Amino acid sequence: MNTTQQRSGLVTTALLAPAGVFFFFLLILPLIVIIVYSFGERAPAGGYSPAFTFDNYLNLPARGKAILNTLTLAPLATLLTAVAAYPIAYFLAVKVDPRWRLALLVLVMAPFWTSQLLRYYAWILILGSKGIPSWLALIGIPDLRIINTPYAVLIGAVYGFLPLMVPPIYVSLEKLDKRLLEASADLGATPWRSFMQVTLPMSLPGVATGSMLVFILLMGDYILPQFLGGGKVFFIGNALVDLFLQSRNWPFGAALSLSLCAIMFVAIFLYMRFVLRQSNLRQEAVV
Amino acid sequence: MNFSPAIAPAGAAHEDTPDVEFRGVSKLYGDVRAVDGVDMALKRGAFVSLLGPSGCGKTTCLRMMAGFEQPTTGQVLIRGADMTHVPAYRRPVNMVFQHYALFPHLNVEANVSYGLRQRSPAPPASEVKKAVAEALAMVRLGGYERRRTWELSGGQQQRVALARALINRPAVLLLDEPLAALDRKLRREMQIELQNLQRNIGITFLLVTHDQEEALSMSDQVCIMRDGKIVQAGSPRELYDEPVDRYVADFVGRSNFFAGRAGSGANGTIPVTLANGFATQGRSPTTAAVPRAGETIVLSIRPEQMVMAGRAADLPGDVTSRLEVVLRNRIFLGEHIEYLVEHATLGEFLVLIPRQADQGDRFATGDTVSVGWRPKAALVLRSTAAQA
């Protein structure tokens, strides 16, 4: 090996070292600890005591409610967010005067300028008994409860994650070749059919990216259910907080969090496969 | 080759009705007149070209036929029906786009069948499949149904675009510079193929191009456009032999131009005095206004109509106009040799000599030779409209 190669090897090592150390101590090592803990037993006073048992995994149904909530509300909220974001992204990418585009995109992101906690507090007031329900009571819909129900969680999720969903869809619509729409019209497709057969399928990768982003964040979320679900609608995240901090059953918490990781891993895998296939389809679009 | 798609053509009108007709069509973008009062009628089954430099309005005309643009004034008729305000998706015309615009998320079969699948009621799947197979066979891509469009070469994508348009049996097939993206050899092949295809299926083709060779070699009729207007329409031969002005003469093929003044002519021949006082004669145009005596004119002579000899005495007897020139450049073109010659007062011009008559390439750069032309070879055009 000559010195040039040695030097370039050294440089590579030096450049990768900070990230490597970071990931080792803050990701790999804790992950190993979690894996080991998940096969252990709760110490009598809480915490971890060494053992090798599958009881924690077999005991998962005890937190079935949290798992069920997460696995239904997170995908549902993702879907609703995508449905809400698509028209906004379409308007921004296709309809709006290009001069206003940037300003409007910034407005979409504007909610991020305020703390997420504060915004959820605001929603507690809006959805609480003195908020929207009291207004609805005036027009004859009494005793409607929204706060601390799954609906509140869904509303909060759509509100909170919309700004993350709009940009990827916007990008995929913005780069859509307008000549394809002319070709579609030329071949006899009405505007609606052109949308269904060309615009929508070609913007699906953007929808998938946005959905993945929102889905991952929702799956692990605990603040949103904590605030708008009020302890009645809880996610895996809330169960983990409870297991680690209240009941101090670390091994069970470890098993539950690994299960969450496994679910996410499968979801990301499916997503990657879909996007890679779609991006293959796109290579040709650049003529 | 016969091509009979399972689905009948949309609305058949009388044989004499033009497939597409423009009546006083103008298109303004702000203050810019992209298309300026165009009248044209495409005869059924013809291969017509719109030829002109970029920005002459030819593509705008095509887009108004397709329905992507609306004329500011005037009417667009398709098979006798007023289509001026009918949206693109209800017009019985189809287009081959410049970069094909194939749907990247669909395979070849889904691309080609796209038009049929938009119909209501939808034709049965078996018929669609059959029509796709026929359309692909027609463009010599049989068996390519399952291919992805990006796997295909440029020429193959071109064929898919053709099949996708023709399967609908349009009243007119619109082709927007369809060969521009192909390399030279492939372009030549596709030209021949397009021409054969058009003759076999009998659908009217309208080709937009800036390539004069392409337009001349493929079309029955060529419309030369300039500044949003049709300057001249006619068969390629008419345009070449009888251009209405200098612009057309220069755009269609090449020509040498000499400024001069017309004398009083008779029997189709006009005596002309060139700017340097040289007295010659030319024929009067049949498609443009005949220059009056005393009018400034331009004499247009095609390079291949020139005759060349070592001495003036060796020129054939009917070559009445003769000039002494110096050979400045000589380009070997295979079957022809192109000479750039310079006359003391008339300047440089081109002479194209076929090689068998050239008798052994005996002229060399720097030689003084005689060139000349017969009266019929020189066309006398009024220079007023020509110089614009």
Radius of gyration of chain A: 24 Å
Oligomeric organization of the protein chains: heterodimer
Number of helices of chain A: 12
User: Could you report the average pLDDT of chain A, rounded to the nearest whole number?
Assistant: 90
Into how many domains do the coordinates of chain A divide? Answer: 1
CATH C-level class of chain A is Mainly Alpha
How many beta-strand segments of chain A? 2
Backbone shape of chain B: elongated
H/E element sequence of chain A: HEEHHHHHHHHHHH
DSSP summary, beta strand count of chain B: 20
Query: Pair with the most extensive interface?
Result: A-B, 26 and 29 residues
Descriptive notes:
The complex is a heterodimer of chains A (287) and B (388). Chain A contains twelve helices and two strands. In chain A, a hairpin with a 5-residue loop joins strand 1 (41-42) and strand 2 (48-49). Chain A has one domain: MetI-like (MetI-like fold, Orthogonal Bundle), CATH 1.10.3720.10. Chain A is globular. Chain A has helices spanning 3-38, 55-58, 64-95, 98-109, 116-127, 132-138, 150-174, 178-186, 191-219, 223-228, 236-246, 250-282; strands spanning 41-42, 48-49. In chain A, 75% of the residues lie in helices and 1% in strands. By secondary structure, chain B is of the alpha+beta class. Chain B has two domains: 20-241, Rossmann fold, CATH 3.40.50.300; 247-386, OB fold (Dihydrolipoamide Acetyltransferase, E2P) (Beta Barrel), CATH 2.40.50. Chain B is built from eleven helices and 20 strands. Chain B has helices at 58-66, 108-112, 114-117, 125-138, 154-166, 184-201, 212-218, 236-241, 246-251, 355-358, 383-386; strands spanning 20-29, 32-42, 47-51, 73-78, 81-82, 93-96, 172-176, 204-209, 221-226, 229-234, 256-262, 269-274, 279-283, 296-301, 307-309, 321-332, 336-343, 347-354, 368-373, 378-382. Chain B has a six-stranded mixed beta sheet, sandwiched between helices. In chain B, strand 16 (321-332) and strand 17 (336-343) form a beta hairpin. Chain B starts with 19 loop residues before the first strand and ends with a helix. Classes of the chains: A mainly alpha (287), B alpha+beta (388). Chains A and B meet through helix 8, helix 9 and helix 12 of A and strand 6 of B.
